[in-house]
Design goal:
The chain has helices at residues 17-24, 37-52, 58-75, and strands at 2-3, 14-15. It starts with a strand and ends with a helix. It is mostly helical.
Length: 77
Amino acid sequence: MISLTPYSRENPVKVSLEDYEKLVHMNERGWSHCDSKEEYMAKLHYLREGCAQGKIAESDFHEREEKMVVGYWNRGS
């Protein structure tokens, strides 16, 4: 199981490795588009892990994270 919310004790979101891989690789309408909370959280987790491991430049990370967060936030408006 992968914890998509490692700092949340009251509302943990966990998915299996298989589901995580499926969610991360959903990109029909672009990688940053998310149809569900689980997809959004999985992609955000994947992006943050990539930055922490040095696989993505910090400036690119901030740009991609902002695009994802704002897109998901606006979807709920």
